[in-house]
Amino acid sequence: MRQRAFALLGSTCLGAMLAMGALPAAAQPALMPLPAAATWNAGELALDGAFAIDSAGCRDPRAGRAAERFQHDAASLTGMAPAQRPGPKLSIACRPDPTAEAYRLKVTADGVTLDADGPLGVLRGLATLRQLIAVNPPGAALPFVTIDDAPRFVWRGVLIDTARHFMTLETVKRQIDAMERVKLNVLHFHLSDDQGFRVESRRYPRLQASGDGQHYTQAQIRELVAYAADRGVRIVPEFDVPGHTRAIAQAYPDLALAPLKPANAFAAQDRALDPTREETYRFLDGLFAEMGALFPDAYFHAGGDEVSDAVWLDHPRVRAFMTAKGLGSKAALEGYFHTRVAAILSKHGKTMIGWEEVAATGTAPKDVVIQAWQTSNATADSVAKGHRTIVSAGYYLDLLNPAAFHYAFDPLDTSAAGLTPAEAEKGRKLSPIMAAVLTDALVAKPLPPLTPEQENLVLGGEAPLWAEIVTDETIDSRLWPRAAVLAERFWSPRTVRDTDDLYRRLPVVQDQLRVQGLRDQANSARMAARLAPGQSEPVMTLLDLVGPTRNMAHDHRILAALRGRKIVQELNGLADAAPVDSLVAHCFEARAKAFAAGDLSQAAALRADLVAWRANDARFQAVARGRPALEQALPISADIAALAGAALAAMDAVEAGKPLAEADRAQAQTVLARVEAFDAASARPLFSFLGKQPPADLIIKIAPGVRALLAAAP
Length: 714
Description:
This protein has 30 helices and 20 strands. By secondary structure, it is α/β, with parallel strands linked by helices. The chain has an 8-stranded parallel β-barrel with strand order 8-9-11-14-15-16-17-18, surrounded by 4 helices.
């Protein structure tokens, strides 16, 4: 029943949003990304058998294999065995441009035609065609439509970090499959850090033995690169230097420096490569030559971020080297190091990508691509210096913000992402630690818009998913469906900004990805079953209505470090199993607002949900008893039940036209205030370490819908 109910989520939310006037009367299919231009026509093409595919007009072998994958996915999406007679025609044509992604798609009574500017355009058009498939038992169909589409940005990426927590090849392939289906085209593969070096090196074999020793063989890397290329996804590796190199230092200690005095608990690094020794650069030359041969992409990410002052500036040999070279600051020393690394990569036919610190030195070669990550100001700074730029500020998926948060930022914004000056000043006054860590690099000052020339230097956007609190089991839920939302931000026109319509489409897209292999829901159910064997249904009901705390608040290792302790955090709790963005809660909010606006047809669905949520508290209490991981969430379950009861009382008042009892309203407001305070406690980065967090690190997500119903009650 749960799967069936969730499958209907998109359609029930659609009805609520139609009542709110959020959509035109003829609601469009749930495409994501939205195409640049689409004309919808009356009628539909029945899918009564397997597609009769003619790809003679595109002889690139990738197009043929993509058509085969599409055929398989179409069968999965419809759930119907192909009829004996042939189904509709699908004619594919393309030109030979290897990089062009534009396509034109037309569905009529005569079949489907897909005409693309290159083989990649065929893959993008088929991604749209998958999403157009509508299942209306006992049949399936495609709506009549003409689509003319092309991406806004050439770089539409996600970063997967397998250094902090290793991900199996199967898991990474599953993410690449989903990337193809939403037109993401770059996998930034973070492969080395303090915790491990994840690629077999035959030249420096001690590397893969460092850390926990888990790594990919060179054969596996070649397999993965080919797998991704077949799906229109480029893999750009990152081997971060000179910081984030404890694993390298463990393998080859002569190449690295350690701080001579303890750093503060927030220090990102306690190791860095030694910039004074020629042996360091010879090592990087050999390593990057070997790794570059495994990854054929023209771009190679060399990191360059977060080098601790305590490692370099406090070291006598480094200070002497700076004096000898005439390097008057740490930034100048970093610039020296990055310039040498860029030259090494250029020698091996690679263009270097580096984090925004590389541009901050002011001496990086102009052909180095910069990745802006802390604020939108960094994008403006980078392009002003003439660097092509990839934007990640505002798109950090590991911070566990909802889809709407990320959707609000555009890659061309200059000031949107980052702390405001007022927020930073407030934070600095809270504690000495905050004063030390809230640097100007985290503050987004108001800046003028980019010039047209500067806009042309922005390659696109990339959504990082760092894996400090992400595992092989949870990556699907931490990456999706929010990565699909950012795929739209990076592909669709800048004018596509309707958050209500986004959440109308998102449940449908999420379910389509699940049908095609995504395991976010399955893995969450497995975790719930592990927490409550044989009794997981009340746990799953609770998980539908909550989300984890945000902005590193769930990373307990940081708070422990502030207190001078080190801990191992088991990522096996309710906050790890909960979805980041509760689409059930968004659907409830849409229905609640429609009801509050006068659409009483929403009442039955609202009541059914609220009655079930109120009753779930007793069931959850019974399951949680004697299980500490669940007992932590008992106050959360109780507050959900209280909110559900208050919402039912508010609906009664609305329908009866009688005032809500003041005692009931006051009690509901008390619970809402507590829930909303917990929500706000992790709303901003770094501030989350100072505020009291909710029990079990769980934020209740149904509060906005409940507040809408209370406001409607007389």
